[in-house]
Amino acid sequence: xTASGRSETADDLLAALLDGMDAALCAFDxxxxxxxxxxEAERILGWSAAEAVGRKGFAGWAVRAADAQDVQDRLMAAQxxxxxxxxxxxxxxxxxxxxxxxxxxxxxxxxxxKPAGVYCAFxxxxxxxxxxxxxxxxxxLMDDASWGVVLxxxxxxxxxxxxxxxxxxxxxxxxxxxxxxxxxLSQGVEELEGALQHVLAEGAPPAPxxxxxSVRTPEGVRRRCWRCGFLRLASPLAEEPxxxxxxxxxxxxxxxxxxxxxxxxxxxxxxxxxxxxRAAAECEDPAEAAAVRLEFALAGFAEHAxxxxxxxxxxxxxxxxxxxxxxxxxxxxxxxxxxPGMPEPGAIPVPYEAGHPALQALDRAGSxxxxxxxxxxxxxxxAEAAGQAAGQWAEARRWPEGAAHALCTxxxxxxxxxxxxxxxxxxxxxxxxxxxxxxxEEVAARVAADLDLLxx
Length: 456
Fold this sequence. Notes:
With 456 residues, the chain is α+β, with helices and mostly antiparallel strands. It contains 14 helices and 16 strands. The strands form three sheets. It has a six-stranded antiparallel β-sheet, sandwiched between helices. A five-stranded antiparallel β-sheet has the order 2-1-5-4-3. It has a five-stranded antiparallel β-sheet with strand order 13-12-16-15-14, sandwiched between helices. It is rod-shaped, with a radius of gyration of 39 Å.
């Protein structure tokens, strides 16, 4: 290829590069004559390259006469100082309008190192301000916003995490990057990943979503409720939207949601006590009234209820875990009735061994909570082994198969202990808490009143 051919190819390449730029660009030689003018400059001002190239400065066509000399001097001064110079000018469009532009100009050295001209990149001020606002917003969000912000890549791994989100995960920002969500959350992973995949495929949901998750932290697992918003991130440089990942914005609303749940639970239980009282008032037999109260108490609270009554008859202090003078416990009622493997109501003493939670409740004249040991087993057989351990735990305490959490409380009336009331939950339910004990004690007090009336 000849020298002229290489020169033409280089000129074509330079022209293509200039026309493909997103910013408007023009260049001046050492005398201030325009040598280059790209398509973005034509779009902003309306002057074509043929009309702009060869003109000396902007005077007489792209700037007001009163401003022409000042604009020219400030642009050409970039030859004499190092680095880039930033200015704002009001330029004229071809149709006579005015456009406020922000320019970045710098000197162009010649082959001998001396100033040979100036290049000037400019854009409309409002577009530049929009860009700066976007950058400032992203930096603020990634710094320490009041919401947690996590940018997740297409593999659903955190790529950027702000300080608020790092505190919510209980880890450093760098330690979270690139890790699967399953390593960060013990529960709620499927729901969160499903939401992220939906956003990647279909777009963001129209409203925020609340998710309950369990976060693994150095201090242990924490159950949290996050109010989440999702944004699909797409590349602005591609002809068609190309997903880059998902922006997850979340706020911890655990306290507010827990307060709402506690209020709703308290309202429901109060309503159940009211309904049970109305139903029990229609029972002629106090024993039937006690059984009705157990049925109402189970709703939303436990799977099983066992009512054991103290028997002070002959031989009541012997065997079955009973201590001398305390009496033995007889199964009075069970709800639901007919539990397999359980003694029939009123038939024989319940063979509780010493240290049984029901006997502890009698000794303390209060409530006792217990749960099956979960252990720290891992591996393919961990779930089966845990289920077997829970079954043995329930069998050893003479409770129905599948019981994993127990709450035993004493039946008290007129200063006397009449027996025990036991509520049982399965492994899929949470363990009993203090608020549950208060509710169980309220039910036990009413059942005890029925039994006391029956004894009279």
